[in-house]
Amino acid sequence: MHRKNNIVLTLKKTIASSLFVAHFVLTSCQPNSQSTSSMSNVDFTNDLIHESSPYLLQHAHNPVNWMPWGEKALQKAKDENKPMLISIGYSACHWCHVMEHESFEDTAVAKIMNEHFVCIKVDREERPDIDQVYMDAVQLMTGRGGWPLNCFALPNGRPFFGGTYFPKEQWVNVLTSVNETFISDPAKVNEYATKLTEGINQMDEMPVQPVPAEFSDEAVDAAVGRWKKQFDTAEGGAQGAPKFPLPNNYLFLLQYATTEDDAEVRKQVLLTLDKMAFGGIYDQIGGGFARYSTDDIWKAPHFEKMLYDNGQLLSLYSEAYKTTKKPLYKQVIEETSQFIKRELNAKDGAFYSALDADSEGEEGKFYVWSLEEIKDLSGDDFDLIKEYYNVNRNGLWEHGNYILLRDRSDSEIADKFSLSEDELHQKIELFKQKAMAVRGNRIRPGLDDKTLTSWNAMTSKGLVDAFIATNNKEHLILAKSNLDFLLKQQVKKDGSLYHSYKNDKSSINAYLEDYAHLIDALIRYYEATFEIEYLDKANSLAQYVVENFDRNDAGFFYFKSSADDRLVAQKAEITDNVIPASNSVFATCLFKLGQLYENEEFISITKTMAASIEPNFSRYPAGYSQWMSLMLYLSEPYYEIAIVGEECEEKRDALLQHYLPKALICGGKDAGKLPILQNRKVQGKTLIYVCQSGACKLPVSEIDAAMELID
Question: What one-character-per-residue DSSP string does 564-587 give?
Fold first, then answer.
């Protein structure tokens, strides 16, 4: 993730010269081997037992006196003048489990933690605001980050030391050193904490840029030119390992390749999608993607399955399918949607958050196969299955098990075995059914059954995109069920949102990400259905954000609303990552709503944000993909396509089959109340108006004619 170089360099110089940090490096305390013991035969209960978060509940019976983040824990640190140990993770995190088993379940380690620290556990998915602050602190101190995140802070919350995963012996050394330094040199600790907190607050600051009369795509072109140098042209994705799917990156690159007619970028996008769909990162039996590949060939995944990845990947493969009509992409769409419906869908329409990487204490055990199992499942088709899924050195993983993955197309395999593709598909489908039945009897990975507004919304958008691409109405039904759940359960009486839901209870004031992604999904659902109430709700939610979230000088919205309690740093999320930044998504939504409702305030805010972010594009292109997509909207022709008349739905559905990365579709049988639709109704006709900023060309009645008007 890109960070301001001057801040990082300044802090690294401070670290290098600090006696405080030197003390951590030089001081060592070996654990007493006779005093360490496991909690396996002892029952403990701490304050986390009252929480609903699956991650916090995982730690509720540690011998560590964990407390949830809140006034009680913060006051305890102040009253006892102890540093806070803020330990952050999430339920599906493999290395979080490892550190728990090694250290947090050990009574001797717990004794040190309990004696010298106020120990606070945080679910990063429930409290991304807390995670942002202390992750930034650790990245500034160490140059890297990850989970579990373990950060030490003064009783006032200001961080002064931290890291990610620590093996047990090293963890004991860290605990001892932090405690000794906190006691022996409080002035140095306070000085460093002050500088570090200043650095965290400066990280989101950007110079205010003038808004140009006209935007240009020059910065986008330069950024893509630099980005190309990082392409892995053999295996797709970025060079090196690990490899993350990063859907928003490839959604932008697909848009860029299409609108700029860039064959090199298009080839890279499709290569990446092919390799991911063939790789072990994709569940070849049950559908859905794991979080990332640990290698550079998409083979061995980190086996956790996250809702946000799969929701966004539905959108990516749906858009790619519209441009290519590749059967592989449609297969991924259908199987991923089925995975979500089968394993992450609650009865009330909510989606759960994640499946763990581990089962029976072993990563990936639920998903991998022994040679004997594959032979039993394959029967007379073993040679075919072996060839199709690389049951060979390519697929061999750990402990003699195999990860199923592909490296050749169906047509190639069918030719080799003298089969038609239909015959091949029948045999593969039979094998999958048998494998799913066997897997259904295995001990399942843990389920994180909390519901997050933002993740649910991006999944609903993915399902709408899947419906548009495939015309499979099951996807739209599932999306509507989820959106209706969110609008009923997560919207408060004052129009604000909740962030989380579990056990029939909504909780935690929503963050900018919740508003941004829900608005985005509602706009997309409206495009697919013309049900105006969903668009109106998107508009009202956007207005709520504009009125209730403060902005910094460069125009970016802070992550938390002005009504929420402040942390030691006020963060504005601006860098796109595995999930695009809440500001980039919200800016895009404001642009679209501004066009549809002729809201100049929304468009002005969008332009201010875009102008401020543009200088960053070439520094780290992959961190600004959603922003660059927005920049293409602003710098090149962007179309509002209005369809009015009795046959509006049929024409809408036909138009949506085209890949239209820079167009917004609206309409209805009557003119309705959107400004852009006024006076468009012609009795007895269904007309298509291609417009830019509300100015429309002469209407046409046929899809082909409308496409000719779109540049």
Answer: SPP-SS-----S--SS--HHHHHH
Give the Cα separation of 675 and 598 in Å (integer): 7
Q: How far is CA 512 from CA 85, 122, 548, in A?
A: 27, 19, 10
Q: In the numeric block, which tokens belong to residue 261?
A: 């007619």
pLDDT tens track for 384-439: 999 999 999 999 999 999 999 999 999 999 999 999 999 999 999 999 999 999 99
Strand duo 118-123 + 67-68: pairing: parallel
DSSP 332-360: HHHHHHHHHHHHSB-TTS-B--EE-SEET
Tell me which long-range contacts 418-426 makes (C-beta under 8 A, separation of at least 24). 424/384
Distance CA 303, CA 363 (A): 7
Length, in residues, of the chain: 711
Q: Is 659 helix (H, G, I), strand (E, B) or coil?
A: coil
Mean pLDDT taken over the chain:
92
Of 198, 159, 201, give the one whose Cα is nearest residue 178.
159
pLDDT at residue 32, rounded to an integer: 34
Burial class (CB in 10 A: 0-12, 13-18, 19+), 42: exposed
Contact 315, 247 (CB under 8 A): yes
- The pLDDT value recorded for residue 42 is 56
CA distance 273 to 278: 9
Cis peptide before 242 (omega within 30 of 0): yes
Q: Say if CB 302 and CB 291 are below 8 A apart.
A: yes
Q: Which strands form 695-696's sheet, in the order they lie side by side?
A: 663-668, 639-644, 687-692, 695-696
